[in-house]
Amino acid sequence: DSGVTQTPKHLITATGQRVTLRCSPRSGDLSVYWYQQSLDQGLQFLIQYYNGEERAKGNILERFSAQQFPDLHSELNLSSLELGDSALYFCASSVGRADNSPLHFGNGTRLTVT
Amino acid sequence: DAKTTQPPSMDCAEGRAANLPCNHSTISGNEYVYWYRQIHSQGPQYIIHGLKNNETNEMASLIITEDRKSSTLILPHATLRDTAVYYCIVRVRDNNNDMRFGAGTRLTVKP
């Protein structure tokens, strides 16, 4: 158990809809990261937050947004969903922002868009 | 960040050591080497990381060559539960902490 909690585990929704994925980091970790893993793309980094502030952006679509709250949990919002958004979405956390601390991943949310 | 090259797949006999190579010939002085694995569709699991010295923990050993252009992850006594995709990642310490994953090596441990 990595200590990172993601909810829900599974989500099925229709095209055009909007969903919110939630992540609680490990106790004491200030950074949260979101990744997307689809069959043909592998693990893609989306975005990083540190102590409530956005720190780095990867391949995140404009239809997607995220935030980190004062209690350090994070939410990833996906809107105007398309079939191609079906994927596993992982959250990870680490202690610092730009140190050598490793990332610890949750077990993901499996999103299916029909 | 430096790119890494890993073989797409490897087999290992149960109980034997699994040696997973990674080439990172363009690594620079402040880049760390990290290893993760992903079992089926679970979240990636952190294994070990190092800068230039060899490292060992309860899961594995990391051997980094003196010129730091390559490294080897060693699972000393592989079990069937070690079957997974193993990712080697190099990351600049002074940059943000995000990890960029490649295709990794699919290790199959056989009975």
Describe this structure in words.
The complex is a heterodimer of chains A (114) and B (111). By secondary structure, chain A is mostly beta strands. In chain A, 0% of the residues lie in helices and 53% in strands. Chain A is built from no helices and eleven strands. Chain A has strands at residues 5-7, 10-13, 19-24, 31-38, 42-50, 53-57, 64-68, 74-78, 87-94, 104-105, 109-113. In chain A, strands 2, 4, 5, 6, 9, 10 and 11 form a seven-stranded mixed beta sheet that branches. In chain A, strands 1-3-8-7 form a four-stranded antiparallel beta sheet, with no helix packed on it. Chain A is globular and about 40 Å long. Chain B is mostly beta strands. In chain B, strand 6 and strand 7 (70-75) form a beta hairpin. The model of chain B has no long low-confidence stretch (mean pLDDT 92). The chains are: A mainly beta (114), B mainly beta (111). The A-B interface holds A 2, 4, 31, 33, 35, 42-43, 45, 48, 55-56, 58, 88, 90, 92, 94, 96-108, 110 and B 32, 34, 38, 41-46, 49, 51, 87, 91, 93-103.
Write down how many β-strands of chain A occur, each being a DSSP E stretch of 2 or more residues.
11
Radius of gyration of chain B: 13 Å
- The pLDDT mean of chain B sits at 92
> How many helical elements of chain A?
0
Task: Give the proportion of residues in helices of chain A.
Answer: under 10%
Portion of residues within helices of chain B: under 10%
Average pLDDT taken over every residue of chain A = 94
Residue windows where pLDDT falls under 50 for at least 5 positions of chain A: none
